[in-house]
Amino acid sequence: MTGLRSYAIIAATLLAAILLSVLPLPHADLLARPLWLPLVAGYWCLAAPRRMGIFTAWGAGLLFDAAVASPFGEHALALSVFAYMMSRYHLRIRNLPIGLQMLFVAANLLLYEFLIFWINGLTSKTGPILFYGLPILVSTALWPAVFFLLRRLRRRYRIH
Prior knowledge:
Distance between the termini: 9 Å
Strand content: under 5%
Order of helices and strands: HHHHHHHH
Number of domains: 1
CATH architecture: Orthogonal Bundle
Largest sheet: none
CATH topology: Arp2/3 complex 21 kDa subunit ARPC3
Structural class: mainly alpha
């Protein structure tokens, strides 16, 4: 597939992840909202590191910051660090069984949420730690589904 179409599909999946992240949910379900954007960005960093990298993650993070009205650059910074870690070790992670991939993704999501927690602490906007911990567990459990769904999309459109 041509480069432009590949970038368009990656951008569409990132936009879908942002839309899933801002989708209105009942208050009880907000605590367990998955971290869709890091999951999708992390997959593309593993599968197509030449097409999805730190700068693309930074741009997607800025869009997400605008969508959720968070301090400008908060998610951009955290997502850039997350994308760096996923891109840096992409050759090792891709060869791991899905269970070990889940552990690596969980560790990176923990780093992502720590950066969000830290920035929120600097801006005096902290909440209970459960608001930061539960999405990590839910997102880690969803990693195999996201991985296999996006892998099927990548293979169908031959994105490398």
